Amino acid sequence: MAEAGDKQWYVLHTYSGYENKVKENLESRASSMGMEDYIFRAVVPEEEETETKNGKQKTEMKKTFPGYVLVEMVMSDESWFVVRNTPGVTGFVGSHGSGSKPAPLLPEEIDHILDDLGISVKAGNDFEVGENVTIVNGPFANMTGKVTEIDEDHDKIKVDVDMFGRMTSAEVDFSDVQK
């Protein structure tokens, strides 16, 4: 049994089609409300799907669980309140209402889901300061840059990318970067 204060994964129910917006809202609220030590990662489970229409192949990302977002967090009254009141979040899965906190996913459940998504549970050790990486998600997607800082506690990585001829520092999740 996990002790209070451990970070665990929870499942959020969202309005369908708002999963990525909820992920962005959660991440910005975590930093703007000083909750980085409680709210770590938000993941929208997606998989690549290739369709052939009119003889043309089209690859797109399809939601594995439409209407759901995974969040890695330490459950406290404050973090529970912040996440629950994030725009687009309709509630936690596994909460029995009347103010009861939700049950986290079991480690083997989340390991299986993240593994299917190609996200390692603890990816931080894979990166080194100074190495070149490609950002695969978010506003800096498809940009290549150099790792300048690794924040293992929050599963974030700072990457310097060249934007319009100027070096810009981008902070992204481990899961949003590839070697």
UniProtKB/TrEMBL annotation:
Pfam families: KOW (PF00467), NusG (PF02357). Residues 6-117 form the NusG-like N-terminal domain. One of its GO terms (cellular component) is cytosol. Participates in transcription elongation, termination and antitermination. Residues 126-153 form the KOW domain. Gene3D superfamilies: 2.30.30.30, NusG, N-terminal domain. GO terms for biological process: DNA-templated transcription elongation; DNA-templated transcription termination; regulation of DNA-templated transcription elongation; transcription antitermination. Keywords: Transcription, Transcription antitermination, Transcription regulation, Transcription termination. This is Transcription termination/antitermination protein NusG. It comes from the Bacteria. The gene is nusG. Belongs to the NusG family.
